[in-house]
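Hi R.,

Here are the chain sequences for the assembly we discussed:
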Amino acid sequence: MKILTFWTLLSLIFCINTKAASDLTPDYLRCEYLENPFIDEKKPRLSWILKSEVRNQYQTAYRILVASKVELLEPGKADLWDSKKTIGDITSQVVYQGKPLKSRQKCYWKVQSWDKKGQAGKWSDWATWEMGLLEEDDWKSQWIGKDFSANTQPIPYKNKELFLPPSPILRKKIALANKVAKARLYVTSLGLYEYKINGKKVGVDFLAPGWTDYNKRLYYNVYDVTQQLGQGEHVLQATLSPGWYSGYIGYALLIGNPVVRAFYENTPALKAQLEVTFTNGETAIFTTNEQWKAATGGLIESDILHGETFDARKVPEGWSQANFNDEHWDDASIINAGKRNLQLYPAQPVQVTDVIEPIEIHKRENGDYIFDMGQNFAGLVKLKVKGKAGDKVVLKFGEMLHPDGRLMDENLRMARATDTYILKGDPEGEEWTPAFTYHGFQYVQVSGFPDKPTKGNITGLVLGSNTPRVGHFETDHPMVNQLYQNIVWTQRANFVDIPTDCPQRDERMGWTGDAQTYAGTAAINMDVSAFFTKWIQDLHDAQWEYGAYPDYAPAPPVRSTDTYAPGWMEAGIINPYEQFKAYGDTRIIETGWENMEKFMAFHYKKSKGAYFYPEGSFADLNPKGGYGDWLSIGKKTPPDMLATMYYGHVASLMAEMADAIGKPERAMHFQNLAKKIKTAFAAHYLNEENLRLKTDATAYGDGAGYVDGQMGFSGNTQTAYANAIFLDFLDDNQKHIAGNHLAQLIHENDGKLATGFLGAKQLLPALSATGHSDLAYQLLLNEEYPSWGFEIKNGATTIWERWDSYVKDNPEKMASLNNGMNSFSHYAFGSVFEWMFHNMAGIKADEVAYKTFTIAPEIPKEEINYVAASHQSIHGNISSSWKKVGEKLFMKVSIPVNTQATLFIPAKSELDITMDKKRLDQHENLQRGHFFEGKQVLKLGSGTYQFESIIK
Ligand code: BGC
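And here is the predicted structure of the full complex:
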């Protein structure tokens, strides 16, 4: 017998060990929803997703190590936190429970999971987070700036005037005596900033530090600038721009509001500190203070809505170099900006997320050129030009062309949306990208270009909050595919620090109604966890003292009558709820709980404790009733009926959220409230005999003062039924009959939809829920006005604000349409995607964060034979696809590790189904439910599975 050597023995043991150990591996480690972030949350939440090749795999325990140095990231050494082996299947929202975290502390962490058999998997790779400045006195810097507005002449513009002061530039030379081991820049501004070191921009962010109620909180950013600093002299530079703080906001100018700009304060200011640790262990801190110098440079006008003018001749030659003499510059002014609540920006910043090349250039008779970018988007262009000093290139942005080829700019209203570059005459050519503005556009009109431009002279830069893409959707239907692309593009164009209504005209505000209706779709397409963490705070900050949430957040007084509106104000409850649902986020509920309770109390008071709103309850608003089913077609759904349903709806959401944060009495209270509202609703708005929804239309008189009030009001509308069904206001029998009423209304309307902002999302799901899936598909595929397909037939590359925003080749109709409110990039109607994902692909969360979910695709009889969708949830990637070939249906699904799905497989009979080529009854341990109404129910754990069935 051969004697085993020590080494063979060892490798044998090792081999056995590897076999025995689990392949379960944590991956994609995140802290507060971000990868390796800077944060200021003292109890950060950690998450990971799990990888394993084993089916039905799940986690039974985990262990997290957190250490102050990567070398200490070992069991027994981790100095900040060792969670020890903790039993449980939780992989997200795991709250750090280690030593208190200090300012500037860098934390290294990793995690290990145990699988369903109790076997340990491998440790994950390590990840980090780093704490920002947690204490007020960590900030040693002062607010600096320079007010140049006094000698600014107003510019006449569209019968009004614009006031666009030049941007201050700020400068400070520093010297570093040693080699740099670590350097951090902590920076914020009132207004927008661009910070450079030796002429090179720090970071890649735009529009920083974002828009908040600056009087309540102001965000700062942190950058690792170690690589940008060596021993020797350096120049710290900053440019400031008014931004949302002191620039123009919304339609204030249009409507003649007494204040049109500088809603917060007039003078932008910078606060920054550069903290350096040298290799010898010494530290230095370079603050903003009175030793900085200030001047104006090339940026002579700058505003988010109106664009920028840059005169390259005015840039002080060499100001980014250490040997530049700034003695003749003014000293920077110390700005008295009061006490500010400084917090670290909690989301992905606005960045360039894509680059777009023009597809065509048209020459206009007057010598201008119009560049067609081929896609409507939000962002900027980079200009490349060669010419003489003083040549002036003017770029004007628009989303559409008139049929005669002119750039359409009426729909921008008072937004000048124009960038101007004045050349310095560099023989090598010049390049320029604006820094503090953005536009919503597909076309760029170029005037004054020195010679004939080519496509290479303009590059489109897509800007938006850099939320990771987590959704995909495709079919074999080109129009539906285009619709999906349009939805995604519209989201990208409007998720710019806050969820805006539109990116082009003089508005771009965080309209709450739009955001609440779109939140579900948003979270399927992109990881908006951090984005909405930020905006939900903006919402609470903007809550009125009397409890209502506003029309838009942040909410400077752009128009004094913009107060609150049913269906808009409920964003204060719906958006936190959507965040909870998508990510299992209970902290967002806890931090907003008091605000949300206050809102519910407002509802109670406003409804006089009657649990419903009779007609005319919101006649005190302007417009009366609020915005109602905004941009619907035909008779209006009574805003008070919708208000009642929204009141009941948010009461139910509050009950669910109360439960989730361990408040059983409040949960009970809100459940009862929801019940009472539903009963009161039915008593007032439901005709008991024929189960039609009704209203007393006479209560609205001639409708004057109500949005589209002249159309008259009816309870018997598509939007009324769609909401009553979708928001669960009816019992099963009533629901069924309401579904028939809804279907009948659509038939009477020539098979077309008539819904607005408060009905478009609910319509198709309500049809599907009541057995009218065929009609839902018909509405989706319709290409006649009004429909999603109509937009696409007319060339849309984004979702329009109105169902008839544009009619190709119909100049007459166009002339009547292009009024002041016609955005081509408005995501609200894109909320139909919820139905596409939930019903066409069939993926619906059961428990929050897709811990358990259903896959139940609705297969249409015709026109669509293939659908594939996926969503990277906080638990990992879920996918569902199906393909119909003759009488056969092929399905493929993926279920992430540590989750479970309930699958509904359409088939003639259970014997007509195979899974991975074997009949279902031949699979051992398969959790088969019943075969019911042509569908086989299966419960599946993680893995990828293929099915084949006969469906005809
Ligand atoms: C915005 C909308 C918003 C609305 C209120 C509009 O001007 O663009 O999307 O919700 O006003 O009805």
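The first strand starts at residue 25 and ends at 31. The chain has 17 helices and 49 strands.

Let me know if anything looks off.

Best,
T.
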